[in-house]
Design brief:
Layout: E1 2-6, E2 16-19, E3 29-39, H1 41-48, E4 61-62, E5 67-74, E6 86-89, E7 102-106, E8 110-112, H2 119-124, H3 126-139, E9 147-150, H4 156-167, E10 171-176, H5 181-187, E11 191-194, H6 200-203, E12 207-212, H7 216-222, E13 226-234, H8 241-246, E14 250-253, H9 260-271, E15 279-284, H10 287-298, E16 305-309
Parallel strand pairs: 9-10, 9-12, 10-11, 12-13, 13-14, 15-16
Antiparallel strand pairs: 1-2, 1-4, 3-5, 3-7, 3-16, 5-6, 6-8
Length: 312
């Protein structure tokens, strides 16, 4: 099968197209023929070597951890999915990723795609959508009328976080550039802070939840907008215990745990019109396409998700 691999850490030029053996599935797995995948910051952070201690994979590594496609083979213990099913998944974090024509996926990480959902849309949802869900629902316990600040609302995790928070009946504020104001409002943001013109920490107070996707100074300033015992949840860097204690805030770091059951819930939200997949750019499945996609993701200014179309 065709795959894009890396043989060493480095810049986007490390991405190489190659023919490799198709995965052999275990009894609890399916073989998924991938139609679309997408780009997430974990992809280029691992490629650059930033995550080599956390994820010490052997080379060659196939990056990518979003998949949408059709089941072409299933293990003997798989009971809820059949060959021919349209499914999507955030596969386990292994060195056999989704920049490939096929991937092996455990049954418990799969979700059925709604009939109206395209493969590109399905590929855009798993990693970013599940991250937003686990930050807001699992960690923060979001509820109706909560005041929620979501940083970088136009980005991959941010756009799903706005929609999820809105579906719970929360009051949602987000930071974004002025050009994205109407876009994030269309997703459910009641107020938009243009980070080029305003300092969110000077104008927001008594918030229940902050979702931090930036880290650094943004994380430090985020404590100021929270009420006592509010929740600060980060996907950028682990908050310090000292800072959280000083501000009387419950702070934590979320590293996504793939769950097919939660992904199926996001599929149901899509079907009911409460969630949409925002695709900013689509690239072809080849060396050139992947290198361009990585370059765009590394700017931190991509709107929505960057999708790679594998099967046309």
């Amino acid at each position: 099968m065709k795959a894009i691999v890396i043989d060493q850490y480095g810049d986007k030029e490390m991405l190489q197209e190659r023919e490799i053996a198709q995965p052999i599935i275990q009894d609890d797995q399916v073989l998924l023929e991938i139609h679309s995948t997408s780009i997430n910051p974990i992809d280029w952070k691992l490629r650059a070597g930033y995550l080599k201690e956390m994820l010490p994979f052997e080379f060659p590594i196939i990056l990518g951890w979003d998949a949408a496609g059709i089941i072409v083979e299933k293990g003997k213990n798989v009971s809820n999915f059949e060959v021919g099913d349209r499914v999507f998944a955030r596969p386990a974090t292994t060195r056999q990723g989704t920049y490939a024509e096929y991937v092996a996926v455990e049954e418990n990480l799969l979700a059925h795609m709604p009939a109206s959902m395209s493969f590109d849309e399905a590929a855009a949802i798993p990693l970013a959508g599940l991250t937003a869900w686990q930050c807001l629902v699992d960690f923060s316990g979001i509820k109706k009328d909560d005041k929620v600040l979501i940083h970088a609302g136009a980005g991959g995790v941010g756009n799903f976080a706005i929609q999820i928070a809105k579906s719970f009946g929360a009051y949602v504020v987000t930071t974004a550039s002025g050009k994205n104001e109407e876009f994030v409002k269309s997703l459910g943001a009641a107020r938009v802070i243009d980070y080029n013109k305003e300092d969110f920490s000077e104008i927001l107070h008594d918030f229940d939840i902050v979702l931090d996707s930036m880290g650094g100074e943004i994380q430090t300033k985020s404590y100021k907008v929270l009420r006592p015992h509010g929740k600060l949840v980060s996907i950028a860097q682990p908050p310090t215990e000292e800072e959280a204690k000083k501000h009387q805030v419950d702070a934590g770091f979320v590293w996504l745990e793939p769950k097919g059951e939660q992904l199926q819930h996001l599929a149901d939200m899509y079907e009911s019109g409460k969630l949409k997949a925002v695709i900013g750019e689509t690239f072809d499945f080849n060396e050139k396409g992947l290198k361009e996609a990585h370059a765009l993701s590394e700017t931190h200014h991509a709107r929505g998700k960057i999708v790679i179309r594998i099967k046309k």
